[in-house]
Structure formats: C-alpha cells, structure tokens
Amino acid sequence: MAPLLAFLAIPAAEIYLFIKVGGEIGAWPTTGMIFGTAIVGGAILRYQGQQMIERAREQVARHEIPVAEMAQGAVLVVAALLLLIPGFITDVFGALLLIPFLRRLVLGLLLLAIRLRLRSKYRPAGHGGDDASKVIDGKFEDISGSQSPGDATGQPGDQPTRIDKE
C-alpha cells in the first residue's frame, strides 16, 4: 500500500511544485532549474564515482573485497536516477545522497532494516529471543543402514554431538 501511495503522491507533489515555481519565476527559468540540477548532479556524481572506483581498485590491489565501495556505488546510482527524474523533490533527495555522510547514514539505516527483517523472518515460530540460544546435547545412532563398513560409527563413551539451533 505504501509504495502505491508514494508512486501516486510524489508525481502529484512534483507537478504541484512545477506549477507553483513556474507561476513565481516563469516557465523557462523553471525548466532551466530542472536541467541545471541534472547537469550539476551528473558532474558531482561523475567526480564522486571516479573517486569511489579508485578506492575500490586500491582495496582490490590489497586483496580486500570493496563491499562498502560497491554499496556506496549503488546509492550513487540511485542518486543519479533521482537527479535525472524531472522534479524538485527528487532533485533534493538525489542531492542529499551525494553528500558522503548522508549516503553512509542511509546505507547504515538500510542495512539495519535488512538485518531486522531477516532476523524476524528466520526466527523459529513460537520461540522468543531467549530460546534461540539454548543448546541441546545428546547422542544419536544412525538406524537408516546407509553407512558402509568403512565409515566411522559412534561407540559407547564417545563425546555427544553438539547441535546448535539457528
């Protein structure tokens, strides 16, 4: 429901702002602002993108995986799309994503939301957070008959197999 509402509300708000700003400063200056933000945003995006690619190359040269650089690159792509979409609201959000501090903040919040969603999705049904840390120790015997004669078998007195939930 929320994505549908945003899909309808954002263009409506953009059109409203086009009409208001155009009524105040005129149609041509408003159009110029739209193209100007796309050009300036594209230039900033190109500069920051090149810096990010250079940092990623340095990390790869040190045999490190540039995860943070790739994630920030994805956010820069979103910023570019927001700057290219005509409108003042999308331009503001796109420009905010070009600020490195805000970009890292958005990434942190996004990763936190993903982590919380995954944690709630994979929590066993009917168990609270305290039950997830219990360990059950026990012995088992394979009664399926699938072991070949050379396989190791459990002998009396062997250490119990530890099975951790999660």
Q: Can you give keywords for this protein?
A:
166 residues, mainly alpha, two-stranded antiparallel sheet, 5 helices, 2 strands
Describe this structure in words.
The chain has 166 residues and is mainly alpha-helical. It is built from 5 helices and 2 strands; from the N terminus they run H-H-H-H-H-E-E. The protein has helices at residues 2-25, 27-61, 67-84, 88-97, 100-121, and strands at 135-138, 161-164. Strands 1-2 form a two-stranded antiparallel ribbon. Helix 1 packs across helix 2 and helix 3 packs antiparallel against helix 4. The protein is elongated. 8% of the residues are buried. The mean pLDDT is 80.
How does the SSE layout of this entry go?
Blueprint: H1 2-25, H2 27-61, H3 67-84, H4 88-97, H5 100-121, E1 135-138, E2 161-164
Antiparallel strand pairs: 1-2
Helix pairs in contact: 1-2, 2-3, 2-4, 3-4
